[in-house]
Write a structure and sequence with these properties.
The chain is of the alpha/beta class. It is about 35% helix and about 15% strand. It has 2 domains: about 15-25 and about 265-369, Aspartate Aminotransferase, domain 1 (Alpha-Beta Complex); about 25-265, Aspartate Aminotransferase, domain 2 (3-Layer(aba) Sandwich), CATH 3.40.640. It binds pyridoxal-5'-phosphate. The site of pyridoxal-5'-phosphate has 13 residues, from helix 3.
Protein backbone atom coordinates (compact mmCIF):
# COMPACT_ATOMS: atom_id res chain seq x y z
CA UNK A 1 0.00 0.00 0.00
CA UNK A 2 2.90 2.35 0.72
CA UNK A 3 4.01 2.19 -2.95
CA UNK A 4 0.89 4.07 -3.91
CA UNK A 5 1.58 7.57 -5.23
CA UNK A 6 -1.18 10.08 -4.57
CA UNK A 7 -1.44 12.58 -7.47
CA UNK A 8 0.04 15.96 -6.48
CA UNK A 9 -3.16 17.88 -7.24
CA UNK A 10 -5.00 15.93 -4.52
CA UNK A 11 -2.44 16.58 -1.78
CA UNK A 12 -3.03 19.15 0.97
CA UNK A 13 -0.74 22.20 0.98
CA UNK A 14 0.50 21.01 4.40
CA UNK A 15 0.42 17.33 5.33
CA UNK A 16 0.72 17.61 9.12
CA UNK A 17 -2.46 16.44 10.87
CA UNK A 18 -1.05 15.34 14.23
CA UNK A 19 -2.75 15.91 17.56
CA UNK A 20 0.39 17.07 19.36
CA UNK A 21 2.95 18.08 18.56
CA UNK A 22 0.92 19.60 15.78
CA UNK A 23 1.66 21.73 12.76
CA UNK A 24 3.75 24.84 13.32
CA UNK A 25 2.94 27.58 10.81
CA UNK A 26 5.63 29.18 8.66
CA UNK A 27 4.80 32.57 10.21
CA UNK A 28 5.82 31.18 13.60
CA UNK A 29 9.07 29.84 12.20
CA UNK A 30 9.72 33.27 10.63
CA UNK A 31 9.21 34.82 14.09
CA UNK A 32 11.73 32.33 15.48
CA UNK A 33 14.28 33.28 12.83
CA UNK A 34 13.67 36.97 13.58
CA UNK A 35 14.26 36.25 17.29
CA UNK A 36 17.41 34.29 16.62
CA UNK A 37 19.84 37.12 17.31
CA UNK A 38 17.89 39.18 19.81
CA UNK A 39 16.26 36.60 22.08
CA UNK A 40 17.57 33.08 21.53
CA UNK A 41 20.71 32.52 23.52
CA UNK A 42 20.06 35.40 25.92
CA UNK A 43 19.29 35.45 29.64
CA UNK A 44 15.75 34.66 30.74
CA UNK A 45 16.23 37.06 33.66
CA UNK A 46 16.73 40.10 31.41
CA UNK A 47 14.20 42.44 29.83
CA UNK A 48 13.89 40.97 26.31
CA UNK A 49 12.85 37.48 27.46
CA UNK A 50 10.76 38.80 30.35
CA UNK A 51 8.84 41.07 28.00
CA UNK A 52 8.25 38.03 25.77
CA UNK A 53 6.83 36.15 28.76
CA UNK A 54 4.68 39.18 29.55
CA UNK A 55 3.43 39.30 25.97
CA UNK A 56 2.50 35.60 26.09
CA UNK A 57 0.67 36.03 29.42
CA UNK A 58 -1.30 39.04 28.12
CA UNK A 59 -2.00 37.31 24.80
CA UNK A 60 -3.37 34.21 26.53
CA UNK A 61 -5.53 36.28 28.89
CA UNK A 62 -6.97 38.13 25.90
CA UNK A 63 -7.49 35.06 23.71
CA UNK A 64 -9.17 33.08 26.51
CA UNK A 65 -11.25 36.02 27.76
CA UNK A 66 -9.82 36.10 31.30
CA UNK A 67 -12.15 37.88 33.72
CA UNK A 68 -10.79 40.67 35.99
CA UNK A 69 -8.57 39.17 38.68
CA UNK A 70 -7.71 35.94 36.80
CA UNK A 71 -3.98 35.39 36.25
CA UNK A 72 -1.94 33.41 33.69
CA UNK A 73 0.63 31.28 35.54
CA UNK A 74 3.34 29.27 33.78
CA UNK A 75 5.97 26.71 34.64
CA UNK A 76 8.23 24.07 33.18
CA UNK A 77 7.37 20.45 32.48
CA UNK A 78 4.20 20.51 30.37
CA UNK A 79 0.75 19.38 31.47
CA UNK A 80 2.15 16.18 32.98
CA UNK A 81 4.18 18.25 35.46
CA UNK A 82 1.08 20.31 36.21
CA UNK A 83 -0.74 17.16 37.42
CA UNK A 84 1.95 16.51 40.02
CA UNK A 85 2.07 20.21 40.94
CA UNK A 86 -1.72 20.09 41.48
CA UNK A 87 -1.41 17.03 43.72
CA UNK A 88 1.08 18.96 45.86
CA UNK A 89 -0.39 22.43 45.74
CA UNK A 90 -4.00 22.60 44.50
CA UNK A 91 -5.90 19.62 45.92
CA UNK A 92 -6.56 20.17 49.60
CA UNK A 93 -7.92 16.77 50.65
CA UNK A 94 -9.72 14.97 47.83
CA UNK A 95 -10.36 15.42 44.12
CA UNK A 96 -12.92 14.06 41.69
CA UNK A 97 -11.84 13.16 38.16
CA UNK A 98 -13.88 12.45 35.07
CA UNK A 99 -11.82 9.90 33.17
CA UNK A 100 -12.97 9.07 29.65
CA UNK A 101 -9.60 8.44 28.09
CA UNK A 102 -5.87 8.43 28.70
CA UNK A 103 -5.34 12.01 29.85
CA UNK A 104 -8.21 12.31 32.30
CA UNK A 105 -7.06 9.00 33.83
CA UNK A 106 -3.47 10.22 34.15
CA UNK A 107 -4.45 13.19 36.31
CA UNK A 108 -6.56 10.85 38.48
CA UNK A 109 -3.47 8.67 38.95
CA UNK A 110 -1.31 11.67 39.95
CA UNK A 111 -3.99 12.61 42.51
CA UNK A 112 -3.50 9.24 44.20
CA UNK A 113 -0.67 10.85 46.22
CA UNK A 114 -0.41 9.43 49.76
CA UNK A 115 -1.10 12.77 51.51
CA UNK A 116 -4.53 12.99 49.83
CA UNK A 117 -7.66 10.86 50.24
CA UNK A 118 -8.11 8.44 47.35
CA UNK A 119 -9.67 10.37 44.46
CA UNK A 120 -13.25 9.86 43.34
CA UNK A 121 -12.93 8.69 39.73
CA UNK A 122 -15.91 8.70 37.37
CA UNK A 123 -15.21 6.74 34.22
CA UNK A 124 -16.85 6.35 30.83
CA UNK A 125 -15.80 3.97 28.07
CA UNK A 126 -13.55 5.35 25.33
CA UNK A 127 -15.61 7.40 22.88
CA UNK A 128 -18.17 8.53 25.47
CA UNK A 129 -18.10 11.23 28.17
CA UNK A 130 -19.06 11.48 31.84
CA UNK A 131 -19.66 14.69 33.78
CA UNK A 132 -18.81 15.70 37.37
CA UNK A 133 -21.16 15.13 40.30
CA UNK A 134 -20.95 17.12 43.56
CA UNK A 135 -19.73 14.92 46.43
CA UNK A 136 -19.15 15.96 50.06
CA UNK A 137 -15.47 16.40 50.90
CA UNK A 138 -14.28 16.87 47.32
CA UNK A 139 -12.41 20.17 46.86
CA UNK A 140 -11.24 19.84 43.22
CA UNK A 141 -13.39 18.70 40.26
CA UNK A 142 -11.28 17.85 37.22
CA UNK A 143 -11.89 16.78 33.64
CA UNK A 144 -10.43 17.37 30.18
CA UNK A 145 -12.07 19.98 27.94
CA UNK A 146 -10.93 17.80 25.07
CA UNK A 147 -9.82 14.18 25.60
CA UNK A 148 -7.13 13.95 22.96
CA UNK A 149 -6.85 10.16 23.05
CA UNK A 150 -10.46 9.61 21.94
CA UNK A 151 -11.74 12.86 20.39
CA UNK A 152 -14.38 13.55 23.06
CA UNK A 153 -15.03 17.18 24.07
CA UNK A 154 -16.89 18.11 27.26
CA UNK A 155 -18.44 21.39 28.41
CA UNK A 156 -16.60 23.73 30.78
CA UNK A 157 -19.20 24.39 33.47
CA UNK A 158 -18.51 25.25 37.10
CA UNK A 159 -19.52 22.52 39.57
CA UNK A 160 -22.01 23.84 42.12
CA UNK A 161 -20.07 22.88 45.25
CA UNK A 162 -19.25 25.55 47.83
CA UNK A 163 -15.52 26.17 48.18
CA UNK A 164 -14.48 23.58 45.57
CA UNK A 165 -12.40 24.40 42.49
CA UNK A 166 -13.21 23.46 38.90
CA UNK A 167 -9.97 22.44 37.18
CA UNK A 168 -10.00 21.78 33.43
CA UNK A 169 -7.30 20.16 31.30
CA UNK A 170 -7.33 22.25 28.14
CA UNK A 171 -4.10 20.95 26.65
CA UNK A 172 -5.61 20.23 23.23
CA UNK A 173 -8.64 22.54 23.52
CA UNK A 174 -7.12 25.88 24.53
CA UNK A 175 -7.62 28.41 21.78
CA UNK A 176 -9.63 26.02 19.61
CA UNK A 177 -12.93 25.58 21.46
CA UNK A 178 -15.04 28.49 22.69
CA UNK A 179 -15.81 28.55 26.44
CA UNK A 180 -16.52 30.98 29.27
CA UNK A 181 -13.36 31.40 31.37
CA UNK A 182 -15.46 32.34 34.43
CA UNK A 183 -16.71 28.71 34.48
CA UNK A 184 -13.32 27.28 35.51
CA UNK A 185 -10.95 28.10 38.37
CA UNK A 186 -7.96 26.59 36.60
CA UNK A 187 -7.84 26.17 32.82
CA UNK A 188 -4.44 24.62 32.14
CA UNK A 189 -2.63 23.45 29.02
CA UNK A 190 0.65 22.92 27.22
CA UNK A 191 1.24 24.87 23.99
CA UNK A 192 2.14 22.12 21.49
CA UNK A 193 -1.39 21.25 20.36
CA UNK A 194 -4.00 23.76 19.22
CA UNK A 195 -1.57 26.60 19.99
CA UNK A 196 0.91 25.14 17.51
CA UNK A 197 4.04 25.76 19.56
CA UNK A 198 6.58 23.31 20.96
CA UNK A 199 6.38 21.38 24.23
CA UNK A 200 7.99 21.76 27.63
CA UNK A 201 5.90 24.41 29.38
CA UNK A 202 2.52 24.50 31.13
CA UNK A 203 0.20 27.48 31.40
CA UNK A 204 -2.79 27.90 33.71
CA UNK A 205 -5.44 30.59 33.72
CA UNK A 206 -6.24 30.82 37.45
CA UNK A 207 -9.19 32.41 39.25
CA UNK A 208 -8.77 34.40 42.48
CA UNK A 209 -10.17 31.38 44.38
CA UNK A 210 -7.54 29.11 42.83
CA UNK A 211 -4.74 31.58 43.66
CA UNK A 212 -6.03 31.76 47.23
CA UNK A 213 -6.06 27.93 47.49
CA UNK A 214 -2.48 27.72 46.17
CA UNK A 215 -1.31 30.31 48.72
CA UNK A 216 -3.11 28.57 51.58
CA UNK A 217 -1.64 25.12 50.86
CA UNK A 218 1.82 26.63 50.30
CA UNK A 219 1.61 28.23 53.76
CA UNK A 220 0.60 24.91 55.39
CA UNK A 221 3.07 22.34 56.68
CA UNK A 222 2.72 20.09 53.59
CA UNK A 223 6.07 19.27 51.98
CA UNK A 224 6.16 20.65 48.41
CA UNK A 225 9.22 20.21 46.14
CA UNK A 226 10.20 23.61 44.78
CA UNK A 227 10.05 22.52 41.11
CA UNK A 228 6.39 21.46 41.61
CA UNK A 229 5.39 24.41 43.78
CA UNK A 230 2.46 26.29 42.28
CA UNK A 231 3.14 29.21 44.62
CA UNK A 232 6.68 29.43 43.24
CA UNK A 233 5.16 29.40 39.74
CA UNK A 234 2.72 32.18 40.68
CA UNK A 235 5.49 34.29 42.22
CA UNK A 236 7.76 33.85 39.19
CA UNK A 237 4.96 34.41 36.67
CA UNK A 238 4.15 37.76 38.29
CA UNK A 239 7.78 38.70 37.55
CA UNK A 240 7.39 37.49 33.92
CA UNK A 241 9.75 34.56 34.42
CA UNK A 242 9.88 30.88 35.38
CA UNK A 243 11.53 29.17 38.36
CA UNK A 244 14.21 27.67 36.11
CA UNK A 245 15.18 28.13 32.48
CA UNK A 246 12.28 27.84 30.01
CA UNK A 247 12.49 26.82 26.34
CA UNK A 248 12.76 30.24 24.71
CA UNK A 249 11.81 28.98 21.24
CA UNK A 250 8.57 27.51 22.66
CA UNK A 251 7.71 30.97 23.99
CA UNK A 252 8.58 32.71 20.69
CA UNK A 253 6.49 30.23 18.65
CA UNK A 254 3.58 30.59 21.08
CA UNK A 255 3.70 34.39 21.08
CA UNK A 256 3.61 34.45 17.27
CA UNK A 257 0.64 32.07 17.25
CA UNK A 258 -1.26 34.16 19.80
CA UNK A 259 -0.74 37.34 17.79
CA UNK A 260 -1.88 35.57 14.61
CA UNK A 261 -5.01 34.18 16.28
CA UNK A 262 -5.91 37.55 17.81
CA UNK A 263 -5.45 39.28 14.43
CA UNK A 264 -7.71 36.73 12.74
CA UNK A 265 -10.53 37.33 15.23
CA UNK A 266 -9.53 35.56 18.44
CA UNK A 267 -11.19 32.57 20.03
CA UNK A 268 -14.51 33.01 18.20
CA UNK A 269 -12.67 32.89 14.87
CA UNK A 270 -10.55 29.89 15.86
CA UNK A 271 -13.54 27.97 17.21
CA UNK A 272 -15.48 28.56 13.99
CA UNK A 273 -12.51 27.36 11.92
CA UNK A 274 -12.04 24.12 13.91
CA UNK A 275 -15.79 23.51 13.77
CA UNK A 276 -15.70 23.88 9.98
CA UNK A 277 -12.71 21.55 9.55
CA UNK A 278 -14.05 18.86 11.87
CA UNK A 279 -17.55 18.99 10.35
CA UNK A 280 -16.05 18.19 6.94
CA UNK A 281 -14.69 14.94 8.38
CA UNK A 282 -17.72 13.98 10.50
CA UNK A 283 -20.14 14.66 7.63
CA UNK A 284 -17.95 12.73 5.21
CA UNK A 285 -17.67 9.74 7.57
CA UNK A 286 -21.42 9.63 8.14
CA UNK A 287 -21.98 9.58 4.38
CA UNK A 288 -19.33 6.90 3.71
CA UNK A 289 -20.31 3.23 4.06
CA UNK A 290 -16.92 2.07 5.41
CA UNK A 291 -16.31 4.98 7.79
CA UNK A 292 -18.08 6.37 10.83
CA UNK A 293 -17.34 8.81 13.65
CA UNK A 294 -15.94 6.88 16.63
CA UNK A 295 -17.73 9.20 19.09
CA UNK A 296 -21.36 8.19 18.70
CA UNK A 297 -23.08 11.13 20.44
CA UNK A 298 -22.76 14.16 18.12
CA UNK A 299 -22.65 16.58 21.10
CA UNK A 300 -19.55 14.79 22.47
CA UNK A 301 -17.61 15.03 19.19
CA UNK A 302 -14.51 17.18 19.40
CA UNK A 303 -14.00 20.03 16.94
CA UNK A 304 -10.20 19.75 17.31
CA UNK A 305 -9.48 15.99 17.39
CA UNK A 306 -11.51 13.88 14.97
CA UNK A 307 -11.55 10.09 15.34
CA UNK A 308 -12.98 8.04 12.46
CA UNK A 309 -13.52 4.28 12.72
CA UNK A 310 -13.10 2.17 9.57
CA UNK A 311 -15.11 -0.96 8.81
CA UNK A 312 -13.65 -3.46 6.33
CA UNK A 313 -10.79 -1.08 5.47
CA UNK A 314 -7.40 -1.34 7.18
CA UNK A 315 -6.91 2.08 8.80
CA UNK A 316 -3.24 1.40 9.63
CA UNK A 317 -2.59 0.65 5.96
CA UNK A 318 -4.32 3.87 4.93
CA UNK A 319 -2.29 5.86 7.47
CA UNK A 320 0.91 4.25 6.17
CA UNK A 321 0.05 5.09 2.54
CA UNK A 322 -0.76 8.67 3.54
CA UNK A 323 2.53 8.89 5.45
CA UNK A 324 4.47 7.67 2.42
CA UNK A 325 2.94 10.62 0.54
CA UNK A 326 3.84 13.23 3.16
CA UNK A 327 0.50 13.23 5.02
CA UNK A 328 1.57 12.39 8.55
CA UNK A 329 0.30 11.57 12.04
CA UNK A 330 -3.19 10.33 11.14
CA UNK A 331 -2.59 7.16 13.19
CA UNK A 332 -4.93 6.59 16.18
CA UNK A 333 -3.83 7.13 19.77
CA UNK A 334 -1.37 4.30 20.32
CA UNK A 335 -3.03 2.73 23.37
CA UNK A 336 -6.60 2.91 22.03
CA UNK A 337 -5.97 0.01 19.66
CA UNK A 338 -8.82 0.73 17.26
CA UNK A 339 -9.11 0.45 13.48
CA UNK A 340 -9.33 4.19 13.06
CA UNK A 341 -7.69 7.43 11.96
CA UNK A 342 -7.24 10.36 14.35
CA UNK A 343 -6.94 13.77 12.73
CA UNK A 344 -5.98 17.04 14.38
CA UNK A 345 -8.19 19.87 13.09
CA UNK A 346 -6.55 22.57 15.18
CA UNK A 347 -6.73 26.28 14.36
CA UNK A 348 -3.53 26.16 12.27
CA UNK A 349 -5.11 23.63 9.89
CA UNK A 350 -6.74 25.19 6.84
CA UNK A 351 -10.18 23.65 6.16
CA UNK A 352 -9.09 23.32 2.51
CA UNK A 353 -6.33 20.96 3.67
CA UNK A 354 -8.95 18.84 5.44
CA UNK A 355 -10.99 18.64 2.23
CA UNK A 356 -7.82 17.53 0.39
CA UNK A 357 -7.08 14.96 3.10
CA UNK A 358 -10.52 13.42 2.59
CA UNK A 359 -9.88 13.20 -1.17
CA UNK A 360 -6.54 11.51 -0.47
CA UNK A 361 -8.11 8.96 1.93
CA UNK A 362 -10.72 8.09 -0.72
CA UNK A 363 -8.03 7.82 -3.39
CA UNK A 364 -6.01 5.38 -1.23
CA UNK A 365 -9.02 3.26 -0.26
CA UNK A 366 -10.36 3.05 -3.85
CA UNK A 367 -7.02 1.77 -5.08
CA UNK A 368 -6.24 -0.69 -2.33
CA UNK A 369 -9.48 -2.07 -0.92
C1 LIG B 1 -1.03 16.00 25.33
C2 LIG B 1 -1.91 16.10 26.50
C3 LIG B 1 -1.40 16.10 27.79
C4 LIG B 1 0.07 15.91 28.08
O1 LIG B 1 0.79 17.07 27.75
P1 LIG B 1 2.38 17.11 27.99
O2 LIG B 1 2.73 18.56 27.76
O3 LIG B 1 3.00 16.18 27.00
O4 LIG B 1 2.62 16.70 29.39
C5 LIG B 1 -2.29 16.24 28.84
N1 LIG B 1 -3.62 16.36 28.63
C6 LIG B 1 -4.14 16.39 27.39
C7 LIG B 1 -5.61 16.55 27.22
C8 LIG B 1 -3.31 16.26 26.29
O5 LIG B 1 -3.83 16.28 25.05
Amino acid sequence: MTDLVIPAHLLPADGRFGCGPSRVRQGQVDALVAASRTLLGTSHRQAPVRSLVGSVRRGLAELLGAPEGWEVVLGNGGSTAFWDAAAFGLIERRSQHCAYGEFGAKFAKAAGAPWLSAPDVRTAPAGAAVGPEPVDGVDVYAWPHNETSTGVAAPVRRVAAEGALTVVDATSAAGGIAFDAAEADVYYFAPQKNLGSDGGLWFALCSPAALERVARIAASDRFIPEFLSLQAAVDNSRLEQTLNTPALSTLVLLDAQLRWMLEQGGLAWAAERTRTSSALLYDWAEATPWAQPFVTAPEDRSPVVVTIDFDGVDAAGVAAALRANGIVDTEPYRKLGRNQLRIGTFASVDPDDVASLIACIEHVVERTA
